[in-house]
Amino acid sequence: MPFDQILVQIVNGLVNGMILALVASGLTLIFGIMDIVNFAHGDLFMLGAYMGTTAYLTTGNFWLALAGAVLGMAGLGAILQVTALRPLVGRDPLTTILATFGLSLVIQNYALWQYGPVPRKLTEPITGHFKLFYVEYPWYRILIALLSAAIIGALYLFLKYGKHGIWIRATTQDRVMAEAMGIPVPWVHTVVFAIGAAMAAASGVLFGPTVGINHAMGFDFTLKAFVVVVVGGMGNLAGSILASIFVSLLESLASIWVSPAQAIIVSFVALILTLLFRPTGLFVPTPK
Amino acid sequence: MSTLAPSPAGRVGDLVSRRAADGPSPAYWIGFALVVGALAAAPMVLPEFWQRFATEILIWGLLAMSSDLLIGYTGMVSFGHSAFFGLGMYGTAAALLWAPRGGALASLWAVTPKLWAAMAAGLVAAAIVAVFVAYFSTRLRDIYFSITTLVFSQIFYVIIFTWTDVTGGENGLTFRQPPFEIPGLLSLRFSQNGLHWFVLAVVAGSYLFLRRITQSPFGMVLQSIRENEPRTRAIGYHVERYKIVSVMLSGIFAGLAGVLYAVQNKFAAPDFVLFLISGETVIFNVMGGMGTLVGPVAGAAVFLLMKEVFSRVFYEYYLIPVGVIFTLMVIFMPQGLLGVWRRALNR
């Protein structure tokens, strides 16, 4: 096995891991604060990518398209939360899987209806390459990883120091107490869902140029994000970011030997082993 | 604890009074006979397209019923029933396609009633998968159980989709429909009606069997796991074992549905192992009413009818209105269509 092939796959794994981390951190945030298992998260990612293509066609600028898709999905996320998920607060988390599964069907088929079955391509804003051993590696992929890291970092700073970020953390810790302190908890929920949807949209648009955007691509990401969120420890932001990178690295390395379709089994096996031997997650301190 | 549908008041009293009353009332049996009679007569009065439709409803209804044992009675939402259904299909196909072609085995196969052998093979395939899934997934609860079952079904999908030499990959496997045989007595090709009655007999039998299970002491433990798992464990029941058996039973009946579907359609395809089938199974349950066994069958009927009607108006985008209705039902009507009669149906 050539050593440079392994190194290229490691770079690939890191890049994919950062994209996945961006999707998964939205999912984690939503689960942590509302106990909502958002089955439609991958579809928000997919719809965000499509919104990016629409915005790109009207503005002709990738960065404006990114901003447009992010804002659009944040708005849509807020609407979805208020109409479909707010009535479910306080019910069994399983009910939220069912409701978001219904939303996922609607979003997926809406995208199919609106954009058709032919995959769409977004044009990347920078087209340069650099030589990485035997491949011409696009700079754009490196840029994606850096941007994802920047967005996640901004989210972290916002949660840690921002006034509203502190509201969000307070609501996560104790919903009733937060409400008693005057925090508008229902709106915190809405905003968190909107942030999650916006992050999914951002990753969708960033990821868009590297693949053809199609209406079914969301499910793969939903599944991967679930795997990552469970492996990293449900509701644990740092854990799910580490797990994204870990799982993507495993898949990239596995795809040296098997086809990419089969490589996904590796991450499933990682999930099952985690659930069996360390059900609280790999990247969290052992609970006392 | 992890019950989805709101529990009707007086569940405990319900459990006690059921013990006292011996078996269901005559009214129940009259209702059962009427429904089965109507279903048996259906193909003779319906136009040809709807005959086939009625048979399909029964098959999907059986799949829905099997998952109700988990969702409605044990309180575990499985998002992986497509694995059992699909393996039932592939097991059936494998038995018919890889029949031994020489030696003593071939002469033995020649006298084996093909239909029953194929059905048995499908059930065995589903059962093996069910043991595997049950062993791992029952260690987890609530959403973790759901995600694990979903992941398992995807693993089987990927294996079946990519292992082209054995499974036919994307194209799946096609075979000739085996005749209905009773050894030494008769051997008949299935007619449209004959197949319908055969499916009806299997589904009705499965219903009675599943109903008996849910009312047995074993079924009572399952329901007590749904209501309060820690307490059930505290009383001294080995909760994990009950859950494993529950997943296995459910998987075997889902496999039986897959076997029937394979016999009806003469093929096995990877699309039926895909997650979408599991999702539809959950939809059947929510729409019809969890924890009633017949509710999911009604849910399957309603879903397939909606699919039929909406796909004439919305073409291939019929899942948009279906998804909206499903989401609204989860929010406003979590007990489903037949949930109102939940207590009566379980008596």
Concise description?
The complex is a heterodimer of chains A (288) and B (347). With 288 residues, chain A is an all-alpha fold.
Task: Describe the protein in words.
The complex is a heterodimer of chains A (288) and B (347). Chain A has a two-stranded antiparallel sheet with strand order 1-2. With 288 residues, chain A is an all-alpha fold. Chain A contains 11 helices and 2 strands; from the N terminus they run H-H-H-H-E-E-H-H-H-H-H-H-H. The model of chain A has no long low-confidence stretch (mean pLDDT 85). Chain A has one domain. In chain A, a hairpin with a 2-residue loop joins strand 1 and strand 2 (135-138). By secondary structure, chain B is mainly α. Chain B has a single domain (26-275), classed as ABC transporter involved in vitamin B12 uptake, BtuC, CATH 1.10.3470. Chain B has helices spanning 11-20, 26-45, 48-74, 81-97, 103-111, 114-137, 142-162, 164-167, 192-215, 217-227, 229-235, 239-265, 275-288, 294-313, 319-332, 342-345, and strands at residues 173-174, 180-182, 186-188, 267-268. The longest helix of chain B is centred in the first third of the chain and has 27 residues, at 48-74. The two termini of chain B are 23 Å apart. Residues 6-10 and 16-20 of chain B have low confidence and may be disordered. The interface between A and B is large, with 38 and 41 residues.
Specify which chain pair forms the largest interface.
A-B, 38 and 41 residues
Q: Count of DSSP E strands of chain B?
A: 4
Low-confidence stretches of chain B: 6-10, 16-20
Q: How widely separated are the two ends of chain A?
A: 43 Å
Tell me the radius of gyration of chain A: 19 Å
CA-based gyration radius of chain B:
20 Å
Q: Which structural category do the helix and sheet elements of chain B fall into?
A: mainly alpha
Number of distinct helices of chain B: 16
* Secondary structure tally, helices of chain A: 11
Mean pLDDT of chain A: 85
Report the biggest beta sheet of chain B as strand number plus sense, adding barrel if it closes: 2 strands, antiparallel
Number of strands of chain A: 2
Shape category of chain A:
globular
Helix-and-strand structural type of chain A: mainly alpha
Q: Give the amount of beta strand of chain A, in percent.
A: under 5%
| Biggest sheet statistics of chain A | 2 strands, antiparallel
> What is the CATH topology of chain B?
ABC transporter involved in vitamin B12 uptake, BtuC
Helix content of chain A: over 70%
Arithmetic mean pLDDT of chain B: 83
